[in-house]
Amino acid sequence: MKKQFIMNIAVLIAVAAICILSGNDFLRMHEPDLIAVTNQNLTEVKMLSEYSPGLKGTAGDTEVYVIKGKKAGASMLILGGTHPNEIAGMLSAVTYIENARAESGTLYIIPRANNSGYTHTAPLWGMMDIVDFKLPDGSVREFRIGTRLTNPVHQWPDPNYYNGNSGRELKHEEVAEIRNLNRNHPGNEKGTLTEKVNYGIANLIRTEKIDITYDGHEAGPEFLRVNYLIAHERAMPVGSMAVMNANIEGLPFAIDLSGKTSYGLSHRALGDNTETLATLFETLNPAQGCRRGKMSKELVLGGIDQNYVDITNRGLLSSGELSAEGSSINQRTANHAVMCRELMIAFSESNPDKPIEVSGMPSYDDYINKGLENILLSINK
Amino acid sequence: MKNSKIFTVVLLLLLAVSMLVTACSGGQAPASSSEPASSAPAGIEPSGTEPAEAGKVERHTSDDNKVVTLNGELKAMETPVLLTSVGQSADVSMLDALLKKIGAEYTFNTTAKADDMGGAKTIIIATGASSKGLGAAGISADEEKARGKELLQACKDNEVTVIMAHLGGTSRRGKLSDEFSDMVLEYASGIIMVEDGNDDGKFSDFAKEKNIPITLVNKIADCIDPLKTMFGK
């Protein structure tokens, strides 16, 4: 009996030890990634709860970085991390925060739009939780790879049926999308945590009179609109000009119109419910595809995956074709940064009395040739 | 006691087998994950987005030879020029961006009707179907066909030159897109297109048969030079 008791205690201690060790991994994902705020042109860092008071003190509250130009002009909102596992949009936003200087107009940058989504990964998908970059001074910049939904620890339970103000009806297996930031725009001040974030974004757009909104995403190769800018109908002229200019520079981007029934998505709902020109851009991230090989740093950062090269060679993909060179994080981040820049240029050309001009950013070739290791700033400095 | 042990072993074996079967089943990934539809707009494409089934034809353009005109030469168009769409794809917006880029003078109306021609001598029609574009315009595919038919008949009646532009490549091929293109081809005096969309020779064969010039470009940005020629720039 005594032997049995000791055995039981030993098992309980072993279980507790495993829980503590694995729990540390989970807790680590609640620690925010550091972003350098040494950019002299950074005017202000505020919280989204300023625009959605219900977010204050919650896991959904997130930083809004403001870079105000010397001259008046247009304003642009750059969203990264609407889906935290789509890391290139967030990294592009971080490079804007750390490098950009607004000559005219104002940049508002939210690098982790769904802050709660950074605190967990998708269960059973074998996703990496953190990616890092070793900088020339030996320091390491770490960024969490979360998942596309708000953490159920912060918003639970999911109801059986939901029909919020986005117009999107959610039921059965879709209902987890109630925690998807890009299904619940324009949000609800008194709604769920996710909706409060959505509301904060829409209210920021209204309050600050944001002229253009850019929502940076990534998609797996099977998605039909990879390297596409999806634009609200009012954003089509500026978006088309931006995409055409990118094409002239040799970047094979394309544009498509936001669907009328794309309820709750940023390019539809923010365009319909605010004055902003709402756009969303997707880059190719093979790590998000369900036919990818083993999860690895090479896949996440190099964007290299032989399965998708084979699928591409069989002609089975629409726009997410993958070559043996892969779709590296440097290239994907560059694509986002350039798409933002082209939108600013196109908007300024169309509105010469209200330009938004930004300097100080790395060039496309800088992203590719130097890599993010040499673009991200050291936090130690 | 012995029976109980055998029973336990059998249960464990069954459990192990069921775990193995489950682990090896490689079940279908949930749509919400495989489709980072995160950003997936609903109704991404209209019916008829399947690439045309046909043998591929010899390609004329390349990175070194970006523009090729067959069956004649590209000439300046008569002005004024009206730019419109039949099918409401986003390609008409890209063409609008290209024309702004070269400083062309034209009128842009994606849903122009016969009454909107305003004395145009040339009409450039970007073809290609988009359910989202049709939805944004608030019209059905049949209504779009009726509008296109009426517009093209007015062009014929008023001797307005019709130029067909097909800039969407293979993604603007398929049943519905081809129906819109066929409608315009019947009245076209010239074609400008991204060559990817002609991989089955549909447009070059038609141009040869009708003896009308067709300008093939390697990529959409390569339209700039031919458009300059067309606008006398």
From TrEMBL, chain A:
Native species: Lutispora saccharofermentans
Protein name: Succinylglutamate desuccinylase
Source taxon at top rank: Bacteria
TrEMBL record, chain B:
Coiled-coil parts of chain: none
Top-rank taxon: Bacteria
Chain spans, region Disordered: 28-64
Keyword Isomerase: no
Record field: compositional bias (Low complexity): 28-48
Residue stretches making up the DUF6305 domain: 78-231
UniProt keywords, alphabetically: Signal
InterPro entries: DUF6305
Statement: the UniProt record of this protein carries the keyword ATP-binding: no
Annotated Basic and acidic residues bias: 53-64
Annotated signal peptide: 1-23
Descriptive protein name: DUF6305 family protein
